[in-house]
Amino acid sequence: MRIITHNMLKCHVKNCTDPNKQFPLRFKDVQLEQVEAERNDEFLVRMLPRLDWPALLKTSKELGMGLPESIPENPGEDEEFLQAVHTFIMETHVKEGSMVCDGCAHEYKISNGIPNMLLAEHEI
């Protein structure tokens, strides 16, 4: 699972105690892998408004990877910024582990790079 996917996932447990803590899901015991991918600057610039930057920044710190604190005024012209974003959201893959909701502590397993977001009947 690429980090870009993680930035769009949130907890959907019906009795989750705090909706403000349903996103971003916190990684737990994850195994990361760097998979080289061709950089597409146009795609990155178009995706920036769709990404939750504070959540992405929190995740990058959690995983010990660096991202700039803020998006520059002209991100398409900032080579260093584009490379950092590309490396983090497109080349960083979570192979194994889990994601945990800080609102209800529900754990979503990740196996072979695929997050299991299915809920049990009583959680829907």
From TrEMBL:
GO BP term, pick one: rRNA (guanine-N7)-methylation
Gene3D superfamilies: 2.20.25.10
SUPFAM superfamilies: Trm112p-like (SSF158997)
Single Gene Ontology MF annotation: protein heterodimerization activity
InterPro entries: Trm112, Trm112-like
One Pfam family of this chain: Trm112p
Transmembrane domains' residue ranges: none
Record family assignment: Belongs to the TRM112 family.
The name this protein goes by in its record: Uncharacterized protein
